[in-house]
Automatic annotation (TrEMBL):
Pfam families: Aldedh (PF00171). It comes from Psychrobacter cryohalolentis (strain ATCC BAA-1226 / DSM 17306 / VKM B-2378 / K5). The keyword Oxidoreductase applies. Belongs to the aldehyde dehydrogenase family. Signal peptide: none annotated. The keyword Calcium does not apply. This is Aldehyde dehydrogenase. GO terms for molecular function: aldehyde dehydrogenase [NAD(P)+] activity; succinate-semialdehyde dehydrogenase (NAD+) activity.
């Protein structure tokens, strides 16, 4: 049986199944991408830009349809899925409008003659993408590399085959030449075959630590560059002078958006003890008021998790924390009397270094609140995890915010708002959250050949 299927997490029903690629399919897509690269690299930036603007237009025109597919495949509330589609359009427009400047040669001052660094495409790239933001993750890989002149092979998450298909349709309808973008329903073993092929020049993966380790091992053996965007356990620090009402609102959005299934979600809420009680009351009251609802309803904030397996794994982590001594402030967990992957939001405190969950990523609607003695203690807690993706700081003191931000071991810091993503700002982390950057000015630089042209005449 194929791994690629639409298994509706709201109902538990398998609604469609897609065949896994054959070995002939794998060789065909590599050949298509390599052949298309020879022509695509010569297409002018202005022509590429027009295509990307058309892609953005089509995303917005089809937003309702695309959002409902996402809700059915992985449970994202449809209103949030529409927001994802809007961000996708922004990403394509950003690179369409800015690539010419970003790809302009860099002139170097030299004693004699001239020197410049040209920014050129490298060739065929493989993208391995997750289910939690099935359009956005593809866009932030595809948009800059289309403009750079690279061609792409895309292995989407097995949970999102319908989304994978409609992305192909959008690119085709926009006029993207055949072979520039190639979807393939590949197995993990087939992905390794693609990585090892000499025609493939780089790999971008967004996913779990385990997936990152596996891909990096194969890519390293094949001497291929990799960009990895992996897990996170982002800190949400609430300083003593924070506006508690806004901090609670930001924490709810940051922790439970996309049903808590985001790498940069506010997974650890670290609160200075002088405002701890007020924050905890406001936060737990808001969580208790949440209700699980149909992801296809425009008013839904919390839907099902992406799959029964994901919900079961989170339940095991929650049970482990409670058995180890964590205090339950809001009782939650899997909903046993309902089909699908429903999980009531939970809130824990008194999680300490002796517990496995202290340094694990909780990928779902479970929040952990920590009490910090002071700012230095908050920073210590924030940095005491193997991840380093992002963090958020709630304070009305701009100088304090800067001081905290400088000491956090992460790739991104957001002040007075939950962590998010914008087309023109770089996204990525350090430590076990991976390496490389996507989006913004840095997102187009990862897969380029920086060629020095030195004229000494």
């Amino acid at each position: 049986m194929s791994d690629y299927q639409v298994n509706n997490p709201a109902t538990g029903e398998v609604e469609a199944t897609y065949p896994t690629a054959t070995e002939q399919d794998i060789q065909r897509v590599i050949e298509q991408a390599d052949t298309a690269y020879q022509d695509w690299r010569t297409v002018s930036l202005s022509e590429r830009s027009k295509l990307l603007h058309k892609i953005a237009d089509l995303y917005l025109e089809r937003k309702e349809e695309l959002a409902r597919i996402v809700a059915t495949e992985m449970g994202k509330p449809v209103a949030q899925a529409k927001g994802e589609i809007g961000l996708v359009a922004d990403i394509f427009r950003y690179y369409a409008d800015n690539a010419e400047q970003l790809l302009a040669p860099n002139k170097i001052d030299v004693d004699t003659g001239s020197a410049s660094v040209e920014k050129l495409p490298v060739g065929v790239l493989l993208g391995i993408m997750p289910w939690n933001y099935p359009h956005y993750q593809v866009a932030r890989f595809a948009a800059p590399n289309f403009m750079a002149g690279n061609t792409l092979i895309l292995k989407h998450a097995p949970q999102c085959p319908k989304t994978a298909e409609v992305i192909v349709d959008i690119f085709k309808d926009a006029g993207l030449p055949e072979g520039v973008y190639n979807n393939v329903f590949a197995t993990n073993e087939q992905a390794a075959t693609i990585i090892e092929d000499s025609r493939v020049q780089g790999i971008s993966l967004t996913g779990s630590e385990r997936a990152g380790q596996a891909v990096a091992k194969v890519a390293g053996g094949a001497l291929k560059k990799v960009v990895l965007e992996l897990g996170g356990s982002d800190a949400f620090i609430v300083a003593a002078d924070a506006d508690i009402g806004k901090a609670v609102q930001g924490a709810i959005s940051g922790r439970f958006g996309n049903t808590g299934q985001a790498c940069n979600a506010a997974k650890r809420l670290i609160v200075i003890e002088s405002v701890y009680d007020d924050f905890v009351k406001g936060f737990t009251d808001a969580v208790r008021d949440m209700s699980l609802a149909d992801p296809l309803d425009d008013g839904t904030f919390i839907g099902p998790m992406s799959s029964k397996a994901a919900a079961t794994n989170l339940q095991e982590q929650l049970d482990s924390a409670i058995q180890a001594g964590a205090t339950v402030l809001v009782e939650g967990g899997m909903v046993k009397d309902k089909p699908g992957a429903w999980f009531k939001p939970a809130v824990l405190t008194d999680v300490d270094e002796s517990m496995d969950v202290y340094r694990q990523e909780l990928f779902g609607p479970v929040a952990v609140i920590y009490k910090a003695r002071d700012v230095d203690h908050a920073i210590q807690i924030a940095n005491d995890v193997p991840f380093g993706l992002g963090a958020s700081i709630q304070t009305q003191d701009a100088e304090l915010a800067t001081q905290i931000a400088d000491k956090l071991e992460v790739g991104m810091v957001t002040i007075n708002a939950p962590s998010g993503s914008e087309a023109n700002t770089p996204f990525g982390g350090v430590k076990r959250s991976g390496f490389g950057r996507e989006l913004g000015t840095l997102g187009i630089t990862e897969f380029l050949n920086y060629k020095l042209i030195r004229d000494k005449s």
